[in-house]
Amino acid sequence: MTDAVRRGMRTALIGLCVNAVLAVIKIAAGVIGSSQALIADGIESTADLFSSLVVWSGLRIASRSADEQYPFGYGKAEALSAVAVGVLLFLAAVAIAIESVHQILTPHHTPRAFTLVVLVGVIMVKELWFRRVRRLGESVGSTVVSADAWHHRSDAITSAAAFVGISVALIGGPGWESADDWAALLASGVIVYNAVGVVRPAVNDLMDRAPAPTMLSRVAAAARGVPGVRAIEKLKVRKAGMGYYVDLHVQADPQMALHDAHVLSGMVKSSIREAVPEVHGALIHMEPYDGGA
After folding, report:
1. Region 256-274: what's the mean pLDDT?
2. Which of 151, 183, 206, 276 has its CA 20 to 30 A from that of 258?
3. What is the full DSSP assignment across the chain?
4. pTM of this prediction?
5. pLDDT at residue 292, rounded to an integer
6. Predicted local distance difference test score (pLDDT) of residue 249
């Protein structure tokens, strides 16, 4: 298990504990303070508990070494976990929207002022945690860790919407009791938007979409820089888990001995992995140079 995977799993477990504490606080404060938006926020935090478990499990499975049944490894489990996180976000948004509409149609008391203090604390904690997890996801190249970060950001957005809604209800007085319910409904739409943003890159990984042009350029430059390489073609790069896998055709001297061609292919592979540490594997196909570019 790599250090990146360990860091991701540890962050997921810490996030699980944070979400558990916040969920209890928000739901309790929402019930006592008559705030549907805060209760909805607590429900979203409860969904985050399952999200953190999914992230932890996905990273654990993705870290397994390749075997006879899965000769290409378990890296896709990471992208599948990210899709699951996005689905959980969507389901949480639907649940919040349904309950918000119910509360809008049902007369209830104005939320109490102390709920605003709770929300300010929640927003600060969630936004700071979002930034920490996002930095980790970017540094280790993990789709599912980045997805988990946006789950935390969605929680912060829900809390911010609840803060605005409750403030409007308190300032507006009688007749504005449902302001926080409308805020929760608006927040559910934002969560759906974030869910789509979480699922899209995960689906790209599952479909083996080509990475950014900069990644392709780095791999190509590393291959061309090896002495003996005349040209390269058919460069294909795909992502699996936190790493990339390269498929490349290398053209060399047509008179080169088979043994020398084998050695050259190993040099190309080593050059690529040294120049681009994110590459976990490379398949080099040797061909005779045909005089092209």
Report:
1. 93
2. 276
3. --HHHHHHHHHHHHHHHHHHHHHHHHHHHHHHTT-HHHHHHHHHHHHHHHHHHHHHHHHHHHTSPP-SS-TT-STHHHHHHHHHHHHHHHHHHHHHHHHHHHHHHS--PPPPTHHHHHHHHHHHHHHHHHHHHHHHHHHHT-HHHHHHHHHHHHHHHHHHHHHHHHHHHHHH-TT-TTHHHHHHHHHHHHHHHHHHHHHHHHHHHHTT----HHHHHHHHHHHHTSTT--EEEEEEEEEETTEEEEEEEEEE-TT--HHHHHHHHHHHHHHHHHH-TTEEEEEEEEEE--S--
4. 0.72
5. 60
6. 95
